[in-house]
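Reviewers asked in the last cycle whether our approach scales beyond single polypeptides. To address this, we selected a multi-component target totalling 651 residues and predicted its structure end to end. The input consisted of the following lines:
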Amino acid sequence: MKFVLFHLMPYRHLDFVEAKKYRSAWTVLPNSMYDPAKGAEEYASYIEQLVSGERLGFDVIGVNEHHQTAYGLMPAPNLIASALIQRTKTVKIGVFGRALPLVNNPLTIAEEFSMLDNMSKGRLVVGFVRGIGAEYHSSGINPAFSHDRFHEAHDLIVKAWTQPGPFAFDGEHFSLNYANLWPRPVQSPHPRIWIPSQGSSETIHWAAAPERKYPFVVTFSTAEAVEKYLKSYSAEAHNFGYEASSDQLGWAAPIYVADTDERAREEAREPLERLFNDYLPMPWEMLIPPGYTSLASTKALAKVRTGLGVERQTLEQLIEKGTAIIGSPKTVRERIERMREKTGLGNMVCLLQFGTLSDELTQRNIERFATDVMPHLQDKKLATREAVPSA
Amino acid sequence: MVPTGQLIEVSGVSTGLLRQGKGPPVLFIHGANGVGPWLPFFEKLSTHYDLLIPDHPGFGRSDVPAWIKSVPDLAFFYLDFIEKLGLKGVHIIGTSMGGWIASEIAIRDSSRLASLTMVGPAGVKVKNVPVGDIFVWSAEEATRNIFLDQAIADRLLSVKPTDEQLDVMMKNRFAVTKYGWQPRMHNPDLEKWLHRIKIPTFVGWGREDKIIPASYAERWKERIPHAQVEIFENCGHLPHIEASDALFAKVKKFIDEAAV
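The resulting structure, written as structure tokens, was:
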């Protein structure tokens, strides 16, 4: 199994009482609530945390893109990736991902990723996503064309990475006379593309297709849903005539490790509940704008018609449902191991800072995870572990 | 009485149509929420005119053709519709988004039109005069913001829609998103061509419109100087529901004079 040290970079100094007066911490939360002096310190802390991932043996350190929200301060994740490249030597750098439909010229995404791949000498892993519903409100991009724009942008980017330029690209949404990438990516044929998703069947089918075999990562879902979606990816692969390998199957979850289950729960409680009840919630209209998912999917979702985080979730519920992995090293190992046994999971995307989790607890969590959980499950560490008797 | 719906084929699009009454043709162009129930306003129109109420492509019982992507596309579709039905001397009435569509039809070709009535039309954006965000509002907020008279909103909100109605509501919502999400419920290229409209024109607005402020009527009057403008007091975004009698009286007089 491979491990990603992943970060959302939330703004922890939010006035949560004031913030609740607004529809959501996304799009409509006034940015007068952001204090740049405090925010600047957040960036410094978070970059340190990610950089420590190399020393601690993570396979990838990863960031992502979100706009106009206290949930995450990375509208331009490539800027963080660029900083991480300068501070590290061997660890892979993940950008999970860029929201392809939200840009008006996807070639800029191809160019920037190509630059990062050159600057890191081939250490880049990328994610392609559609952005979440709120981001269609904040960008103005029409959600009715979200899927079309995603696929067209994907085709353009991959073509720009792999075909000799210049070439012309005639799309419905993107049309260019000249696509001619300088620089071309270092990795051949191109940086690995991951597909983080909430598990739509269309996305799973598309990602698993033999010409792509894109690693799929289920994000922020219950253990039951993660199992279902990973199995459905494997079933799709099987239908395509091949067996999905473990490095195609990923899971992204908040994780907290401490000496005991009790202590882990105590320390993770407030930060985790803040994540799910304060940073993430948004009403239905922001979460699923019309066209963002197909009419059939939207109808199915409407049956349980709720926004995200409309009902308050407690730490116990999040642990019970397996959305968050919180506990002693043994508990955390077993939760991940169990998912691996059931699904063949091969990429664990670990959110080790979440919500308001402090720098001190975050660093302790990252180190504890790297020391007491990761080596037991990590591919390249297996031999080492067997050769060295435990103290 | 409520007419039986029919489906007609126009430009390869199966199109839902309600048609009732005799007299000069009146084409009612519905707004973002679709045709909805048979209203007293429709009943009155159909006692004097040959009233046609189609579902726009993407809405109601109509097909969802991928190639119709914008309000300008809808305008050309309706020119095909009018030709296909062999209509002449058509009086168009459009409300809200339907007013926008109606104006886009009229700037393109008004040779078969006798008059144009727009009530609280979308389609034009006045800089720095915001319009309500129908896409961020919840269903309840939207219903409350559409009407000044909250008793109407209360009544609508107290009725639980059937599954079939929910399906149509969602279909309509997808369609209005496709046509109106960006630029938000307007066409930046519309306003500069409104001078093309030479036929008799009536612009109606609810004084208390919380979606598109009544002050927008001034911009329409500037661009179509011969337009007759009427502001309805104590009325929200949908005068054909909230000021049905007053609107009908004005529109009937306007249409009958225009037809002469």
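The two ends of chain A are 24 Å apart (CA to CA). We regard this as preliminary and will revisit it once experimental data from Aim 1 are available.
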